[in-house]
Amino acid sequence: MFRLLLAVFLFSMLVARESNGLLSESVANRDADDFVSSSSKKVNALSHTKADVGSISSGHVKTSVVSHAVAVGGIGANWGSQASHRLPPDIVVRMLRQNGIQKVKLFDADYDTLRALSGSGIQVMVGIPNDMLSTLASSSKAAERWVSQNVSHHLTNNVMIRYVAVGNEPFLETYNGTFLRTTFPALRNIQEALTKAGHRTQVKVTVPLNADVYSSPGGLPSGGNFRANIHDFMLPIVKLLSDNEAPFTVNIYPFISLYTDSNFPIEYAFFDGNAVPVNDGGTSYYNMFDANHDTLVWALQKNGFSNLPIIIGEIGWPTDGDRNANLDYARRFNQGVMARISAGRGTPMRPGPLDAYLFSLIDEDDKSVQPGNFERHWGIFGYDGQPKYALNLGTTSGLIGARNYSYLEAKWCILKPGARLDDPKVAESVSYACGLADCTCLGYQTSCGGLDAQGNISYAFNSYYQKNNQLDDACKFNGLGTVTRADPSIGNCRFIRMIKPYYGGVGRVSRDVGKTMSLVLGIIIFLLNGL
Known about the structure:
By secondary structure, this protein is α/β, with parallel strands linked by helices. It has 3 domains: 2-25 and 505-529; 32-376, TIM Barrel; 412-484, no CATH class. It is built from 13 helices and 15 strands. The radius of gyration is 25 Å and the shape is globular.
């Protein structure tokens, strides 16, 4: 009996330990001795958030920045993972290659994503989320193990990792200094770990920063300098980058200035040259991009880093969720970015080629909407990997969408015909659905902003239904919902049909758990044979 109890106990303990260990492999262990993987999907709620950033012209133009680079050349794109239904990584990598996208910026170091990039020839920037900075800052051993697991391992498997992004906009003013004292130590430890692993010349560190890390009190680029309250935190970071021939990475968003300031001159957001120029000591700035970029250049020069290369970590325009977030503006802006990249034309202070990553590749419906309802609609491709608009990337005649994946069944959840709109359960149900799904297309002058009350309710119901994989219980809504096989989409308002879910490394986890269970069962059989 003792051996039987021992066998049962051993089985339960080992399976539980193995399952928990494998299933959490993508979440970094906070213990320094086991802090290995940065595949965490728990990116901060404001990850890649775009913040309002101070004025930079004689009018109301706001600052946000960019520039030229270390490994200039080729189109770059941000590939995020905050989507309820992700496309399989191998399909996305095929999209990248077919569209001539030669560089990709990640916000983590997801194992399956990096494995899919193996042998692709695509340059990769892996990311360390902000919630890992504290551990990496306090433990050089943790940094060494992170580099071993998330850089060295993949380099060996022919993944072209070229950068490690330490944190993501960690100095945002909205973070209230949370990461001020951990960003540089984490950066230093990662750099030392890369050097120790023999990657110093091949892989560069950087810190993607929002443009609120600097300001221009006089409103002109030449007045640029780092924000006074973080100046002493910025200098060690910039010096480390300079000492290691690594780039300064910054995110620029003219759209945010338009979103936050009704007086912002809209033509100044684009590259067409139609705006009234801003004159700075004889230099004319016809768009926000150039002015913001050169504000950063001035800030670097004033602090002794005139030649530090600059990467534009994020630049783009959303397509929904706000009256200025639409397909026409997004096409106009992103085509302007591509024209600059294709022409190899920089700015007055840095006339050379730009190194830029479009934000973003694919829509992400799980992103926080705290910055605004547009936050889930930055992709040049929709959630299903299909192009939203015509965009010439300079390598193809147009965007090439994802292939070889499947949608869920052709059915939608709508408000039951005849249901009373004044039923108190309606408002409660809509609030519930929108709180857990995505209703950001229902705002004023958005793609579905013209729906009537019944249409709004149906849209909310369907969004929840699709996000929950069309489960029968996901269309109940206190008896108000019903499933239809007639597509309720109207005009430009698309009622989505979700793609089949991708479960990441579950297959790998299942295989590994299976191996462990086989081993445990063998031990149990051995023990039981002795009874």
